[in-house]
Design goal:
The structure holds 2 protein chains of 2 kinds. Helices cover 51% and strands 9% of the residues of chain A. Chain A is an alpha+beta fold. By secondary structure, chain B is of the alpha+beta class. The chains are: A alpha+beta, B alpha+beta.
Chain lengths: 282, 391
C-alpha cells in the first residue's frame, strides 16, 4: 500500500516574479501548461498561491510545467491548476487555530501489491474504517458514462451511414453491371458458363472492395490527424478524439469488403439470369 | 416544365435505378436533417426550459453550474436585498442537496431541492405545494421509483456537507407530485421548503446554490442593478447562460454536427454525381439522337439538371419523416447521458432547419449535376451517333 496523493489542486493568485538564488529555497510547485500560458509563467518563476478568500498567501517557486492528464469530463474547461506537496497545501488551507491532526483530504489513492483483490481490499477497508468509503479504481469508469453514450450515438450514426452507402452501392453496381451487359452476353455466347462469369465478377468485386477499403483507411488515417489537431486546438487539450485502432480498421474492412462483393454479385446475378442473346442485343 | 416531365419519364423508364437513387438520397438526407436539428437543438431546448421557469436572472456565487461551484452564504439577507430592487419581481433561492432513499431494488440516489422565496421552481401535477414541516413534492420519476403516493411518508438520508457525509434519515411526507423542468435523467427530485431541507441536514446554514429573479424592467438593466447591489456574486441573464453553454457546454454537439453535415453533403454530392454521370454515359447515343432531332443544347442540359433535382427532391421529401424517426431514436440514446435535464431535447425542429435542409439539398443537386451537364453540353452529335451505330 502506498500513499500516492502528493499534490492537490489549489488556486493561483498573485503575479510571477523573476527567480533569484534566495528564491530557490522556496517550496516548489508544478503549474499546468494552460495556467502557465495564461499567467505567462516559466520554470523558476515565483508565484503566490493563496486559498480562494485570498488570505494567507505564500510564495512558491515554479519547479516545472506539466501537461494535465487529458480528462474527457472537463472538455472545454482549461485546466488552470497548481500541484503542491500535500503538507504545503494543508498549511495554506487549514484554519490557523485548527488542532494538529484535524486536516482533511478528499481522497487517498492506493496502489496494491500485484495479484491483490481490489474489491476484497476495499470491502476490508470499509469494514475496518467506518465513515470512509473505499472502492476499486475500476468503479471510476462511471465517470465515463457520457462517453459510453456518445459511443452508442456514433455507432447509430455509423449504422445509418452504412445503410445509405449500401443503397448507393447497389444502385451503382446495378448501373455498372448494366453497362457491361453486352460484354457479359458475348462471354455467355462464346461458351462461358454463368458460374464462370459470376466468379469473375466476384473476384472483380472483391478487388474493387479491397482497393476501396484501403483507400478508405488511408483517408481515415489522414483525417484522423486533421480532426484530432482541430479539436485539440479548439478545446486546448491533449485528448485524442479520433483513433483508428487496428480493431476499428479490421471492423471497417470486414464490413466493407463483404458489402461490396455482395452488392456486385447480387447486381450481376440479376443480369446473368437473362437470356444470353438478350444480353448481347442480338 | 417540359424538361421536368421528360426527366421524370427518364427516371420512370428505369424504376430500379431511380428508386435506389432516391432511397440513397433519402437516407443521406435524413442524416443531414438530423445533424441540422442537432446543431442548435440543445440551445433551443435549453432556452425553452429557461423561459418556462419564468425567471430572467440567475445569481450564483461563482458563475458555475449547480453542484460545481461554491454556495452563497447569507441567503436571507441577499434575497431581501435583491427583492428590494424596484426592477425585480419575484425572487427565489434554491439549495440542492444530494440524498438517497431506499427503493425496492436498493438505494435510490436523488436530489433534495430546498426553496425559499416568492415562487416555486416546479409545477404541481397533483396534490398541493408543501406548506408545513416535513412536507415535500416529488417528481413523477421518484414517485414511480420509490412507489410513493400522496400522503405517504418515506425516509431520505441527505449528504449536505460533502458527498461522503451520511446523516441520520429524515422522514418526509409527500403532499404533491410535481414536474421539475431541470430534473436530470437518473436523478429524481424532491422539492421542499428550505426549513424542511435544513431539518434533513440537521443544521441551518443560510446557504443557497442559486437565486432566481424575474425582471419587471429590461432584463439587462435589471441584471446590472442586481450586479451593482451584489458585486461579490455572479449575475447572469438567461441569454448569458445560453451564451456560456454555447461556448463551452454544448459546443461538442455543434462541432460534431458541423463535421457530419459536411461529410454527409460531400457523400451525397459524390454519389449523385456518379449516379448521374453513369446514367448519362449510358444514354449518350439517345441524347445525341435527341440533339439531331432538334433538341437544343440547353434543353438536354436542363433534362439532366431536372433529373438530378427530381432524385434529390424526392429523396429529400422522404428524408423528412425518415429523419424525424431517426432523430427520436438518436435522442433516446443521447438522453441517457448523465447530467442532462430529462425535458431537454438534442434534436429540435425549427422552421429555419427545414429551409436550410432544402437549400443544402438543392445546392447539392445542382452541384452534382454540373459534371454530367458538361458531358451532355459538349457531346459531339455526329461522332456519338456514328459510334452508337458501329457498336
Amino acid at each position: 500500500m502506498r500513499l500516492s496523493v502528493l499534490a492537490i489542486l489549489a488556486v493561483l493568485a498573485g503575479l510571477p516574479a523573476p527567480a533569484t538564488a534566495q528564491q530557490a529555497e522556496l517550496p516548489a510547485v508544478m503549474v499546468s501548461r494552460q495556467a502557465a500560458e495564461a499567467l505567462n509563467l516559466s520554470v523558476g518563476a515565483v508565484v503566490q498561491v493563496a486559498p480562494p478568500d485570498g488570505s494567507r498567501g505564500r510564495d512558491f517557486r515554479v519547479a516545472g510545467i506539466y501537461e494535465p492528464t487529458p480528462d474527457p469530463s472537463r472538455l472545454g474547461n482549461a485546466v488552470h491548476a497548481v500541484r503542491l506537496h500535500l503538507p504545503d497545501l494543508l498549511d495554506l488551507t487549514s484554519p490557523p487555530d485548527a488542532p494538529k491532526g484535524a486536516e482533511s483530504v478528499d481522497a487517498i489513492n492506493i496502489r496494491l501489491v500485484p495479484d491483490t483483490d481490489a474489491l476484497a481490499f476495499s470491502r476490508d477497508v470499509n469494514a475496518r474504517l467506518p465513515g470512509l468509503s473505499a472502492r476499486p479504481a475500476t468503479d471510476a469508469g462511471a465517470a465515463a458514462g457520457p462517453f459510453r453514450v456518445l459511443e452508442r450515438f456514433h455507432l447509430a450514426i455509423a449504422i445509418v451511414t452504412i445503410i445509405a452507402s449500401t443503397v448507393f452501392l447497389v444502385a451503382l453496381t446495378v448501373m455498372l453491371v448494366d453497362e457491361r451487359r453486352e460484354t457479359v452476353g458475348v462471354l455467355r455466347l462464346i461458351g462461358l458458363p454463368t458460374s464462370r462469369v459470376l466468379v469473375q465478377v466476384l473476384l472483380e468485386g472483391a478487388l474493387v472492395a479491397g482497393a476501396g477499403s484501403v483507400f478508405g483507411l488511408a483517408l481515415a488515417l489522414v483525417s484522423e490527424g486533421v480532426i484530432n489537431r482541430f479539436f485539440q486546438w479548439r478545446y486546448d487539450t491533449a485528448l485524442l478524439f479520433v483513433q483508428v485502432t487496428p480493431s476499428v480498421a479490421a471492423t471497417c474492412v470486414l464490413i466493407a469488403i463483404p458489402l461490396g462483393v455482395s452488392a456486385t454479385v447480387v447486381a450481376s446475378w440479376l443480369l446473368l439470369r437473362r437470356n444470353a442473346l438478350r444480353l448481347a442485343r442480338r | 416544365m417540359i424538361a421536368l416531365l421528360f426527366a421524370w419519364r427518364s427516371l420512370v423508364r428505369q424504376p430500379a435505378r431511380a428508386t435506389l437513387g432516391v432511397l440513397g438520397v433519402a437516407a443521406v438526407g435524413a442524416l443531414l436533417f438530423d445533424m441540422l436539428m442537432l446543431s442548435d437543438g440543445l440551445i433551443v431546448s435549453m432556452r425553452d426550459l429557461l423561459d418556462r421557469t419564468g425567471f430572467d436572472i440567475r445569481v450564483t456565487a461563482s458563475g458555475d453550474l449547480r453542484r460545481v461551484g461554491d454556495r452563497m452564504h447569507d441567503t436571507d439577507a441577499t434575497l431581501a436585498a435583491i427583492r428590494r430592487l424596484p426592477q425585480v419581481g419575484t425572487v427565489l433561492a434554491i439549495r440542492f442537496v444530494e440524498a438517497e432513499a431506499d427503493g425496492a431494488d436498493g438505494p435510490v440516489a436523488l436530489t433534495l431541492e430546498g426553496v425559499q422565496g416568492d415562487a416555486r421552481p416546479w409545477t404541481v401535477l397533483s396534490g398541493r405545494d408543501p406548506a408545513g414541516a416535513r412536507e415535500v413534492v416529488v417528481s413523477q420519476a421518484l414517485a414511480s421509483t420509490l412507489g410513493v403516493e400522496l400522503g405517504r411518508e418515506f425516509e431520505v438520508r441527505a449528504r449536505c456537507a460533502s458527498r461522503n457525509q451520511v446523516l441520520p434519515p429524515a422522514r418526509l411526507r409527500v403532499v404533491g407530485i410535481a414536474e421539475f423542468p431541470f430534473e436530470l435523467v437518473g436523478d429524481p427530485t424532491v422539492g421542499t421548503a428550505m426549513p424542511t431541507l435544513d431539518e434533513a441536514c440537521a443544521s441551518r446554514t443560510d446557504e443557497s446554490d442559486i437565486i432566481l429573479a424575474a425582471a419587471l424592467d429590461d432584463v439587462d438593466v435589471t441584471a446590472a442593478a442586481v450586479r451593482a447591489a451584489q458585486p461579490r456574486l455572479s449575475v447572469a441573464t438567461n441569454e448569458q447562460v445560453l451564451g456560456r453553454l454555447q461556448r463551452n457546454g454544448f459546443t461538442y454537439f455543434r462541432q460534431i454536427s458541423a463535421v457530419l453535415t459536411t461529410v454527409t453533403l460531400a457523400f451525397a454530392l459524390l454519389l449523385i454525381t456518379v449516379l448521374l454521370t453513369v446514367s448519362v454515359n449510358q444514354r449518350l447515343g439517345e441524347i445525341a439522337a435527341l440533339r439531331a432531332l432538334g433538341f437544343s443544347r440547353g434543353r438536354v442540359v436542363a433534362d439532366v439538371l431536372c433529373e438530378s433535382l427530381l432524385i434529390v427532391g424526392l429523396g429529400g421529401l422522404i428524408s423528412l419523416p425518415l429523419g424525424a424517426v431517426l432523430a427520436r431514436g438518436l435522442d433516446s440514446i443521447l438522453k441517457t447521458m448523465p447530467g442532462i435535464p430529462g425535458q431537454m431535447y438534442f434534436f429540435v425542429l425549427e422552421p429555419a432547419t427545414l429551409g436550410l435542409h432544402a437549400s443544402l439539398l438543392a445546392i447539392t443537386a445542382i452541384a452534382a449535376a454540373l459534371y454530367p451537364m458538361q458531358i451532355v453540353a459538349r457531346l459531339p452529335i455526329a461522332a456519338t451517333l456514328r459510334n452508337e451505330v458501329l457498336s
